[in-house]
Amino acid sequence: MQSIVVFDSGLGSLAFIRALISELPYESIVYFADRANHPYGRKSKEELGKIIHSNIQFISEEYKPKCIVVASITPSLLVLDKARSYSTVPLFGTYLYLDKAYLSSRNKSIALLVTSVLAKSMELDDILKGYTSRCILKVIDATDLVQYVESGRFLRYERGIVEEICGEIKKDPAIDTILLGSTHLSFLEDYIKEATHSMVINPIVYNIERIKGYLSNHDMLERGKNKKRKRGLTEVVVSSKDDSDVKVFVSILAELGINIDSVKFRTVYR
Question: What is the pLDDT of residues 249-264, one digit of tens each?
């Protein structure tokens, strides 16, 4: 059976994987953790383009997947349009869905938590232009929060780190909606809600709906026809210079409640 291959450089995409397994339980999923190129959120547009091109080629040749998902918002916005021109496999990015935040905001005042690279990009500016006349948008560099998650420290929640970033939002009482601009921040969604008393929009939900819709419309969706198998298989592939990341992923997957009985680990040296 063909797999859905999801890739990113960091732990943030584990939130995407967990949601994908929950929503599409019969799909076989390969998670390519591109640790050798971590972090995507601090790479230049040119660097990201080369990395994404290389990874798509590797995944397409190695797995012949039904689709590839880039589970990171920054490269999805900066380089994925170009990647579609050479990908022979259906390619999905992870996008902001600012329209969902706009429709949810009563005050039409929204905070966007994004990486430093995305905050400075023309691509984000182009997205925001369509809304600046209709609402107030506050872009906040949440790179420190992303790194907090990436370090694994989010598993032992430290309130002060979240509240420091959220303090920028609380300075403006009109803000009533927060858009998460990194998959990493999904792990802090409840804490951000608590710290700001605002509605939080998590784009992962809408991105998975889009993938599910595509697979269903093209008759590619696994629907549990094989009753002997209760769920799809999940494999984790780590690109790294050593084996240390494998142990980290095993422990974090277990703590996140992601079933690791059917997970295979192998290190890819690239």
Answer: 667 777 777 665 455 5
